[in-house]
Prior knowledge:
mainly beta, five-stranded antiparallel sheet, 4 helices, 28 strands
Amino acid sequence: xxxxxxxxxxxFSDDKNQDDTPKAVTNEQLNTAKNTVARALIETGVIQExxxxxxxxxxxxxxxxxxxxxxxxxxxxxYSLGSRSPNQLTTEQRPSFASSITVHGxxxxxVQGPRLNTTKEEKCSKMYGPDRRLDLQVVPEMPLxxxxxxxxxxxxxxxxxxxxxxxxxxxxxxxxHRLTVAATQWDFFSFGHCDLPPDSSSPYQVIPDQTDPLEPxxxxxxxxxxxxxEVPIPGSSLESGASVTVPMWIRGPTSTDTxxxxxxxxxxxxxxxxxxxxxxxxxRVTLKTxxxxxxxxxxxxxxxxxxxxxxxxxxxxxxxxxMNKTQDSTITEVSVLQVSCASQQWILQHLSxxxxxxxxxSSQESVFLCFxxxxxxxxxxxxxxxxxxxxxxxxDQHQISSSTPPCSDFxxxx
Length: 414
């Protein structure tokens, strides 16, 4: 049993002297010379024997391997039928039909295309368009991408950030470039540019042993985040047979549920290839999210000594509630290590809180924190309206740099 096909070779060749209408080659003819030519163009997989018991149904897999560029049309399935000899009725030995009388047959593959429903004539009558699923274009060699996720968690708390890695490998015969990726939840991941040590237990960039709080840092606000992210591979291209490991940060969705997130990787061949300029690779991950924390904040103008409200400082009251339920054993206690503010003109400072204080929130409990926000007079003059200033209020000796990825990336994507 084997597939029957017609092949038009050389349609994508660079030779300008070739005929405009190439001759078709088929493997249906029994001529030995023509079959030799067909085998040189297409490697046809042949199933030597399929045994079907009475009223039995089996699935078979037929394959073709093109060896030259061109246009391939799969037209049918060729087979030979044979019956079991009365001398082969024993069940101890596997029966064979190699010496039996066989009858050659052919089953044409005529697939009905989609129904047309555009014009009035097509709507009133049953008209179908052509089906091209068995018409294939064989193009020159292309790159072939393989992606493997390492350390990808199965469970995350809502809003939790973890670092994972992806390994991209080019198993094709041609280099690839312009590797990008998109996801159904485009704010779910970030590549960023943060260099973390391999043994780091934190997904953030941490500055240890700081006696004074970090000076507020200004970051230019991007004009807009694209849902398509470029995969940062060295040199912007990946040679044939090469692989590279890229760090990636993921953030748990804000709702508790089982999430199915689809990734689509897009890449192009370095060689100019008009018939097929790109390829895509799809990947799906399943992630379960559980309750974490709920944060509510209210800002009010401060009152000076004359009992008048001032517009230069605010009192920020924040409630942090541990939403973890008793049946969720993933999170039993939450520690508040730092609160960061991203604003064009406001800087957050300690008010009722202080450094080196261990703030823990148990399950179903809340804690209230008060901060002071001061207007920065020179902020807009220094960098204009397109920049954001990050200020940090930390309760631990280790300060997290909120102005660098992945913190800044997830902030701008939110």
